[in-house]
Amino acid sequence: MDGYYGSYILVAALLALGVAIVAGALLANRLLRPSRPTPEKLTTYECGVDPVGEGWAQSQVRYYVFTYLYVVFAVDAVFLFPWATVFDAPGYGVATLVEMFVFLGFIALGILYAWRKRVLTWT
């Protein structure tokens, strides 16, 4: 398969082969499995708890806020660990240290804002 389009043809052939294998496996599963639906099997199952009531339930906003705060701390860790590993290398000096403290200052302001709004209290 030489030429410009040869590699594309190879990728398309491998993609078609992969789709055919997956489709064949799903078809074989459908043909070979037993099908005995009962009302008990058709009920919704989640975490071992029988479904009671409606399927609609509201969750409180504070759970989303905790999720966002976790994402902020995860991003903070993503920036801090590589910085800590290369900080001692030559060429990284006071400017890098100042930049990291500015970044940590922004993170601290976010935490202070969340604390002042009483987001971090679990009630």
UniProtKB/TrEMBL annotation:
Source organism of this protein record: Nonomuraea monospora
Top-level class of the enzyme under EC nomenclature: translocase
Residue ranges that the Swiss-Prot or TrEMBL entry lists as coiled coil: none
Protein name (Swiss-Prot/TrEMBL): NADH-quinone oxidoreductase subunit
Family listed: Belongs to the complex I subunit 3 family.
Enzyme Commission identifier(s): 7.1.1.-
Keywords noted in UniProt: Membrane, NAD, Quinone, Transmembrane, Transmembrane helix, Transport
Localisation per UniProt entry: Cell membrane; Membrane
Function in brief: NDH-1 shuttles electrons from NADH, via FMN and iron-sulfur (Fe-S) centers, to quinones in the respiratory chain.
Catalytic activity: a quinone + NADH + 5 H(+)(in) = a quinol + NAD(+) + 4 H(+)(out)
Pfam families: Oxidored_q4
Membrane topology per record: Multi-pass membrane protein
Domain of life: Bacteria
UniProt KW Membrane keyword: yes
Spans through the membrane: 6-28, 63-86, 92-115
PANTHER family per the UniProt record, alphabetical: NADH-UBIQUINONE OXIDOREDUCTASE CHAIN 3
InterPro entries according to UniProt: NADH_UbQ/plastoQ_OxRdtase_su3 (IPR000440), NDAH_ubi_oxred_su3_sf (IPR038430)
Chief localisation class: membrane
